[in-house]
Predict the structure of Endoplasmic reticulum-Golgi intermediate compartment protein.
Amino acid sequence: MNGYQQDQGYVQDAGYGQSQSYAPSQSYGYQGYQEQKLDDDAFGPAKGGIVSSFDAFPKTKKTYLVQGRNSSAWTVTLILTCLWLAWTETARWFAGTTTQTFSVEKGVSHDMQINLDIIVGMRCADLHVNMQDAAGDRTLAGDLLRKDPTSWAQWTGRNAEKGVHELHAGEIGAGWDMDDLEVHNHLSVKQKKKFSKTPRVKGATDACRIFGSLDGNKVQGDFHITARGHGYMEFGEHLDHNSFNFSHIVREMSFGPYFPTMNNPLDNTIALTPTPDDHFYKFQYYLSIVPTIYTDSLKAMRALDSADSAATAGLFAQHAIKTNQYAVTSQSHTVPEQSVPGVFVKFDIEPITLSVVEERGGFWPLVVRLVNVISGVMVAGGWAWQMYDLALEFWGKRGRRGDGMGVLGTPAMEKKSWD
């Protein structure tokens, strides 16, 4: 009995003590909850000014948000990529697409204009300029072209024009290169009728500048510059052979309308005799002429393709131009005194036409391509960033698992093996 009472008292004492100690503890925990203000308002929308009251999607306070990885650098990279691709696509649209086609020349052409600007290392009075074609017509080009006395030193050495180069013997020069296929470059040039003036000469003259344009038959022909009394019968004083010097500079050699800025294989070329004693020297050029049309309009090309006169063939329009390009082969060698030295140009007309057409797509197709490019970059960039984020998260979890941490963040206890 006493034992029971003792136990009962013990229980009461224990209960009393527990009751006395638990009540204050419970009261203190509630007060701490109130002090920390862990209520629903803490997770509500952040308080703001007047603008936030109109926000249809309230935002959570930053305290309860987990900030993700900073993707500003990746966003800037995507923007720069979009700008670069959009620029290249727009530049390609402005440049257009150039196509080249060969076809049999249509229409009947009779005449062809020849433009020449050449400096020969002999006096003008000692030179003859003539042209003869396959039709048997002989043209006294010396009477149609202009001859200006000049000095050879004025065109060579330090005084040489920019871009003057030597066309070596046996070298083949193409009639056009990649720059010549840029149609807008040709359409922007201006046709001229006059050549530049000959600079004034100080001192004695020992060379001759022959320049101008002349019309001939559009057939195979020869154009040659020879010494007086050689090549053609002529009465007069015999010309001393020591005065022969057929070194020359070709500033312009073209067929069709005269466009000074249009490059041709023989333009700005110089040809010299091996030694000053090589008086009997022959320079031979073989030209293969191809009628060429540059245009950015198919309608203009059809109009030019039916040209049947020299005036129409040399038509210069805003969207089309018809001219002639050529390829050249050069041969030069010493000839015996029984032969005729000089500068000989033999040309032949090809029965085909080269059409270089530059086409540009419409504006709205360009807009569609730009939208596709930009949207494709943004979508692909978003996928790449998500894959990158997942990869970092995967490797991060794998690294945390290998640290030997327990579930509660404490070091895991290793199992002991029982002996």
